Amino acid sequence: MAASEESLRKALAEKQSAVEAHGNAVRALKAAKASKPEIDAAIEALNSLKLEKSSIEKQLQAAVSGSDGDGALSREAFRQAAVNTLERRLFYIPSFKIYRGVAGLYDYGPPGCAVKSNVLAFWRQHFVLEENMLEVDCPCVTPEVVLKASGHVDKFTDLMVKDEKTGTCYRADHLLKDFCNEKLQKDLTISAEKAAELKHVLATLDDLSAEALGAKIKEYGITAPDTKNPLSDPYPFNLMFQTSIGPSGLSPGYMRPETAQGIFVNFKDLYYYNGNKLPFAAAQIGQAFRNEISPRQGLLRVREFTLAEIEHFVDPEDKSHPKYSEVVDLEFLMFPREEQMSGQSAKKIRLGDAVSKGTVNNETLGYFIGRVYLFLTRLGIDKDRLRFRQHLANEMAHYAADCWDAEIECSYGWIECVGIADRSAYDLRAHSEHHVKNVFDEGQRDGNIDFIGTNLDKSGVPLVAAEKFSEPREVEKLVIAPVKKELGLAFKGSQKNVVEALEAMNEKEALEMKAALESKGEVEFYVCTLGKNVPIKKNMVSISKEKKKEHQRVFTPSVIEPSFGIGRIIYCLFEHSFYTRPSKAGDEQLNVFRFPPLVAPIKCTVFPLVQNQQYEDVAKVISKSLTTAGISHKIDITGTSIGKRYARTDELGVPFAITVDSTKDVTIRERDSKLQVRVSVEEAALVVKSVTDGLRTWEDVWEKYPHHTSGSADD
Amino acid sequence: MAASEESLRKALAEKQSAVEAHGNAVRALKAAKASKPEIDAAIEALNSLKLEKSSIEKQLQAAVSGSDGDGALSREAFRQAAVNTLERRLFYIPSFKIYRGVAGLYDYGPPGCAVKSNVLAFWRQHFVLEENMLEVDCPCVTPEVVLKASGHVDKFTDLMVKDEKTGTCYRADHLLKDFCNEKLQKDLTISAEKAAELKHVLATLDDLSAEALGAKIKEYGITAPDTKNPLSDPYPFNLMFQTSIGPSGLSPGYMRPETAQGIFVNFKDLYYYNGNKLPFAAAQIGQAFRNEISPRQGLLRVREFTLAEIEHFVDPEDKSHPKYSEVVDLEFLMFPREEQMSGQSAKKIRLGDAVSKGTVNNETLGYFIGRVYLFLTRLGIDKDRLRFRQHLANEMAHYAADCWDAEIECSYGWIECVGIADRSAYDLRAHSEHHVKNVFDEGQRDGNIDFIGTNLDKSGVPLVAAEKFSEPREVEKLVIAPVKKELGLAFKGSQKNVVEALEAMNEKEALEMKAALESKGEVEFYVCTLGKNVPIKKNMVSISKEKKKEHQRVFTPSVIEPSFGIGRIIYCLFEHSFYTRPSKAGDEQLNVFRFPPLVAPIKCTVFPLVQNQQYEDVAKVISKSLTTAGISHKIDITGTSIGKRYARTDELGVPFAITVDSTKDVTIRERDSKLQVRVSVEEAALVVKSVTDGLRTWEDVWEKYPHHTSGSADD
């Protein structure tokens, strides 16, 4: 808890006691029929105490709602204005609206769809093409076995509670979070200790078990928000949309919760396609699905969304990156683990320093953090409202080496929009092992028993890479050689199981057995496929370390995964681009999106100043040259006033407008500055194209061409 | 049946009888111990009969397998070669292969994914941008109510039969089709009548009811293909993947079977976005899902696929198209209904003639047929293996005005790749009516009974358009005015139902009632919500025609829907682009895809002729200028022979290769002609770009630049 808030809570509690005590004193004076001046003086003292209390309340209110007391309110009003414009102009709308919609599903209308296409095209340019990534396109429908291996079937859950009377479902952590936030922000009477406790709950929310969450909900007396009915205990709800593949009803499947698995299962083919060379990256853009318990926050938490994911496969012993030097000097807001733990805030750090100090685990992870920073800021995300936050130890999966989220601040707070994780070898191993187990389970075991039963590191398991040595190297290798004859005599039909279990021992287990056999001559050995211990004698197995020449090193590559929530990025981009300015007459606020040309749904509009055939013909000529130049644009020949037409395109974030007001020269107006230049009809399209393609800036154009003298038409 | 086939079957049957009769004669001669010369002469006659029979058999075999007797066999071999290359180079591969895959699901690997991106980008350019369509992006997860309205929940089914012992499922029509085809092609002994019957079954397959299909399966003794077990009766299986939206389990949903519904439900907003003007088109690219009973034919019948759909909304009274003149002179293979019925084949028709003769229902439909032709042929589809086939009356939905399929011929036969249908007002009406019914069902009825109960044409139902008249027009309108007081007295609590039923009468019904009431004073009237007839007297309702001034005409727009199966188009494109040619040494066949640059996954490769720093530096300079020019390319610095490197890129369909064999000039080689020109290092990228962008042809380049003198490196 911030020091000021804590001391304010204490001061408020003291002042409250003082007010109560003084109130009693006044009442006592009145009861004792004290003199009027005496009573008046006491009342005046009481009032000044109340004033002091109210002042502390105000300060506390300001402290809990952020830097300014009206912050939450103005954020809300800003969002309302932006969302109204977005929905009215069909950037996005709730899906199936005529059927009263479905929570968590949205349609992108024409301008939103164009923005999304532009964002995805730039993503493909910035990542896939510039980095020579292998792009793939896999189905959304996924059989259960794949998501069992990845862990999603067992663990991709949120804790849910039900209204015990109506059956309405809620996310348990959301209810607890809302309760704590509301208490902290609206109830100024809670003690500093209570406030600290609630803040601790908020900080550890993601770690709470079902039991702990349930206990807190009971302790705080939280009920169903809509009905105030009691709630059930929390229980896990799997967030995948389930379905059934094929007509038999016997093949369960799910709509993929992420696109990554499609890449992992293809690792072997992609590695081969890349000439059996590491590192390389595969990428995929596609739909993913999460059956959220109670979607909220518009585009930020939805049930279907577009993900763009990169899986960069790298030798775990060499996580350098050839292009690291290109990002090393970038400086931006980073929020390392330690700063979060010690209550500091994000600060500007040079990426190279974060990597060299070990704050960021390795060069490749650092490289992608830098590339994500460039990607987001080029789209138009405000760099001062973008930070890279490192996962705390308790947030990170046990196998992950390091993980950073690109968080963007919007009216809902800091939102995770890109996750950049070094997931080590987890995903490929999960599929290798599960794959083997799966093949094994389905009775293909006898044909290649050597392959399947043995230690995975030794076998030809699919999802691995190999580093060929230029000349063979001598290595010490553990060799476990079961003596089949002896084992057969001792265990008969179970011989196979015992052999497999012996071969599956890791180095430590094997060396312990070797030592025990040498000292005692016999050990008890657990065979999991038999479910019991068996006695192993010295003559049944030979365990030794042998020197071997090896020609290659076989290993499971590490995966570094930047994963982009495209809808979240787009929503934050909408908010960062939105502003209002007064109309010419000053009687209303006009809405503008300051999209960079890269993102803008349309790059240019063409307006004949008045409805007249000559001007319309010129507009058509310009339109044709814009088409040839590949600039998306629109002609507006309605007779509406030019100011209204500007306002209409500003609301769509169109950066340039060409007004046809003569047959020789036309006016080009820039959206944000509202500045206008005069350009010949022949040049118009090329001027727009050069700025749109980033070959020159609007300032260059402003320098070069004559300015429109009669002032801007809309201002 | 083709005349020649029929007469051949008859001739074969006659010859067979002759052979049998003559065989008997020979045996009789032998039994009668006739003289050797006599027997020998008889045997010789028999042998020549057998020869004649065998010749007829060959002719018949040729007739049933197409133009050449080895057609099926060579098609199969061609496909095998193409698919081997496609899968080996990861154009596409079965999904989840390491888990032994799932039928009907495929991944696009890197080159396939690039081809798909290129096809979609061109689609967007050719249709969305050039026609100013409103593109939208809606979710795949769709609530049941939407697909109930569209008819998919009730009718989107295939007939299925089960192996009665193993439970394995088969598509009933596929089994019957396979049986008939096999019989026709392999059993030459069946009579001409039997053959005609089997052909009739094939022709009417799509129309057979479950009962008729079941009867045929029984009649022909068709059993399960894998086990020969008996089969169940056919029953409908819904092809949508079902799921459940939200945690309650109470909101059924489906993965959309097409993208069109997302557009229809947004009609009102899109119409408004378009300034309340018709015609306009909306478009959507996205995944669609069909849980096929038994997917086969690779990419052609899959369970998840990318659709690109256009819904062009038009005034049903004016289906002209402003850009129709741009396609009117196109000439290509068309296959009108009448030619199909009379056993002719597709023929070249000028599009303008087909429209003016009424073969194609209207200009807008014709315009889209022309645009689809241009789209497909520019992608690289062979125009001689592309035809537009009109639906037969029995294929078409009852509401459709006309429907044409763009069919592409590949090794599997003629495949429907694009459907272009005039669906009249069906889809918008379905949602309007269901929407109303839905609101009605859920108890919102009392508030606006006038709106809901009344004739839909009269009410403010959402999904309509309006044509504003420049001045009001006088129209005659039917007015049905139930006299509520009299109806209330007569029917008490059922009054509402009777009022609604009266108001819902169409013009014909109302005028008939009016006449009957005037002549008889009372009529029996069926009220469907009561499920019975009620007596209506003259004083209970007034029916009249009144003249009214109207300011606008309100109508449900017609929808013209071109719907593209992107995966099918891509597969056919793969086949049309694939060919083999002998290697330089002549010892093997090399594979080539002749993709046009527009489609090619990579436009250019850059090869240093030998491994040397100077050449690699030049390669990097060229690579940089290619990047600046926006040309996707790859450098191959492996030391492999140049011929092998060419073969490798030919297999990916890369149109150009730049070989660096000096530091001043380089060689550019064109894939299909294998011709090579010498170009300076500075010009290389621009030459490739100009051909790739279609600004000049390879022939122009060949004219202008010096030819590589030492002959082509790979030939």
UniProtKB/TrEMBL annotation, chains A, B:
PROSITE patterns: AA_TRNA_LIGASE_II, WHEP_TRS_2. One of its GO terms (cellular component) is mitochondrion. GO terms for biological process: mitochondrial glycyl-tRNA aminoacylation. The keyword Aminoacyl-tRNA synthetase applies. Signal peptide: none annotated. Homodimer. This is glycine--tRNA ligase. It comes from Gossypium klotzschianum. The lineage of its organism: Eukaryota, Viridiplantae, Streptophyta, Embryophyta, Tracheophyta.
